[in-house]
Amino acid sequence: MQKNKVRKAVIPVAGFGTRLFPATKVVKKELFPIIDRDGRAKPVIIAIIEEAISAGITEVGIVVQPDDKEVFVDLFKNPPKKELFDKLSLENKEYSRYLEDLGSKVTILLQEEQLGYGHAVFCAKDWVQDEPFLLMLGDHVYASDIEKSCASQILDVYEQVNRSVVSLTTTPAENLHTSGCVTGVWQELNSILEVTQLYEKPTIEYAKQHLRVEGMAENEFLCIFGLYLLSPKIFDFLAEHINQNLRRTRRISINIFS
């Protein structure tokens, strides 16, 4: 596979947010306010886009429900009305102009029917075209404890291995029921793992028998962190699953995406 520069990020935000009901009856979870490290209140989606931009991404596609399109267009494409803008502090007026610049990098994509996460990603196929892309989750806040951002780190690994990459995090056994768990072989100890199996929400018993990773504590496992660098080959597999109406495959090899 020829290595191409990663220019695009895809962020699916078309879910219903059922786990955060009733808050999501009023505000989509991707628009929940958070306080960033500079003390500024902002919707989660802005922090996610800024994470992508920090890694050198130049175009961001946000996959939304048709009913939510207007909300995201207003956030990223429309400046505040004059009566609001005039009331902003000088700092916030500057930030408003920054948002317009950020919005120029954003494309709104539609998922006409809510048919699951994989289908939402597939809705970005024509926009991504034949390029590797960064896939980010619309309900995650990515925060690195080192100088380099999380997105920058996964792009660095892609530069090294020239194949699809998934970020991992250490997870205690009692939380495996919420995560996709992996096993594999270390290429660089505690840094790069060649994944040989992924299992969605395994039981602790299954994980202890089949998903152990060398060097991990007895009750700790490696699980998906929610940040992916994928080759466009992923769309072929998604198309196959959509055509066959397969909503979940519990055990897969990540190597098929190389």
TrEMBL record:
Q: What catalytic activity does the UniProt entry give for this protein?
A: alpha-D-glucose 1-phosphate + UTP + H(+) = UDP-alpha-D-glucose + diphosphate
Q: Which Pfam families match?
A: NTP_transferase
Q: Which SUPFAM superfamilies match?
A: Nucleotide-diphospho-sugar transferases
For the keyword Nucleotidyltransferase, the answer is yes
Q: Nucleotidyl transferase domain: from which residue to which, for each copy? A: 8-249
Quote the EC number: 2.7.7.9
Transferase keyword on record: yes
Q: Which domain of life is it from?
A: Bacteria
Q: What are the record keywords, sorted? A: Nucleotidyltransferase, Transferase
Mind telling me which PANTHER family this protein's record contains? UTP--GLUCOSE-1-PHOSPHATE URIDYLYLTRANSFERASE
Family membership noted in the UniProt record: Belongs to the UDPGP type 2 family.
Name this polypeptide is given: UTP--glucose-1-phosphate uridylyltransferase
The species this protein was found in = Nostoc cf. commune SO-36
Q: What is the lineage of its organism?
A: Bacteria, Bacillati, Cyanobacteriota, Cyanophyceae, Nostocales
